[in-house]
Every structure is written in structure tokens, then in C-alpha cells.
Design goal:
This protein is mainly alpha-helical and about 80 residues long. The protein has one domain (about 10-70). It is about 60% helix and about 0% strand. It is built from two helices and no strands. The longest helix has 25 residues, at about 10-30. The N and C termini lie far apart (about 45 Å).
Length: about 80
């Protein structure tokens, strides 16, 4: 039963999306911890969350293109810049 809906590419992409959500959750929890003046934070968790948000959106767009079989197209006409 090899269906296009459950292709290997879709399964791998969903696993990557779940890992991204887990990393986002870890960064969220770490950023909400109170700051300790004696131990400065060396990792900018808020910046990582912003970057992960963009990566999650790109992964979701990839999932849509895998499921529909068509690449996500912009709404503007091709001649415009």
C-alpha cells in the first residue's frame, strides 16, 4: 500500500516539523526562566525562536506542496517586481 499521501518525503518532513516544534518549546521554556545575574545566558533563546518560526513556516509550505503535488506559488503576477 504505497500511497502518495504517506510517501517517505512526507513522513520525514512531518518528523522534522515535530522536531522543530520541540526545539521551539524548549527555547520557550528556557526563555521564561528567571535570569540569574551570576550565570548570564549565552544562548539567545528569543532569537532562536524567531528563526525557528520562519523555518516552521517553510516546513509547513513544503508539507502543503508534498500533499498537493504542486509548488506553493505567490499571489502576484509574474511580470511584477
Amino acid at each position: 500500500m504505497d500511497s502518495d499521501l504517506f510517501s517517505t518525503q512526507l513522513i520525514v518532513t512531518v518528523i522534522i516539523l515535530l522536531v522543530e516544534f520541540a526545539l521551539f518549546g524548549i527555547c520557550y521554556v528556557q526563555s521564561k526562566k528567571p535570569a540569574d545575574p551570576l550565570k548570564p545566558r549565552l544562548i539567545p533563546y528569543a532569537l532562536i525562536m524567531v528563526i525557528l518560526s520562519a523555518v516552521i513556516l517553510a516546513t509547513l509550505a513544503h508539507i502543503v506542496s508534498v500533499v498537493t503535488g504542486e509548488q506553493v506559488q505567490p499571489r502576484r503576477p509574474k511580470g511584477m517586481r
